[in-house]
TrEMBL record:
Domain DUF305 residues, every copy: 114-164
Domain of life: Bacteria
Organism: Deinococcus arenicola
Transmembrane segments: 26-44, 64-83, 90-107
Record keywords: Membrane, Transmembrane, Transmembrane helix
Transport found in the keyword field: no
Name of the protein this chain belongs to: DUF305 domain-containing protein
Pfam family, one: DUF305
Length: 172
């Protein structure tokens, strides 16, 4: 006997049958959120002026984590009909609220950021100021003078921070 005759039409199948094991679909959801969070972290560096200004930044990592947590909550809310296990959904929601709160606290407090980590976070930040100051369509001479001063200061400070990072690493 053909097994497909015994199955209900796809429109009548439970969410579990349509999507395979529910754990698998939640696993895919988790992989989607994790991948998106990593991609968001990387995207935060696209506006640096030079590739050698890209350093690992705890601050940007915490920011990517809180963005990923918010995205998980929003996506789960929009796809609630696909994810019907209310206990798992509540765990996902509560877990992501906790990740959001912790990551936001870490960003705002900078509790884990020491000397080198701070400089590695500030270099890309300064690099963004260089990029926008160089490429903005500035026509006013006073504003151009200000932008040029920002470029000069940021270039100098990046060089100083790179030297300090090298110095502090050599002392370890």
């Amino acid at each position: 006997m053909n097994e497909s005759r015994n199955r209900p039409p796809a429109s009548q199948e439970s969410g579990e049958n349509r999507m395979g094991k529910m754990g698998g679909s939640y696993g895919r959801f988790a992989a989607m959120i994790a991948t998106s969070t990593v991609v968001m972290y990387g995207l935060m560096y696209l506006n640096t002026s030079q590739l050698d200004h890209v350093y690992f930044s705890q601050t940007r990592m915490w920011m990517a984590l809180y963005m990923g947590a918010v995205m998980a909550v929003i996506m789960l809310a929009f796809m609630m009909n696909m994810y019907r296990n209310s206990r798992v959904n509540m765990a996902i929601l509560l877990g992501n609220v906790a990740v959001f709160a912790a990551a936001l606290w870490l960003v705002r407090s900078q509790a884990t950021v020491g000397d080198v980590a701070w400089m590695k976070a500030i270099i890309p930040h300064h690099s963004i100021a260089i990029l926008t100051s160089k490429r903005a369509n500035i026509t006013d001479p006073c504003v151009r003078k200000l932008a040029d001063g920002i470029i000069e200061a940021q270039v100098r400070e990046i060089a100083e921070m790179k030297a300090l990072i090298a110095d502090l690493k050599s002392k370890k």
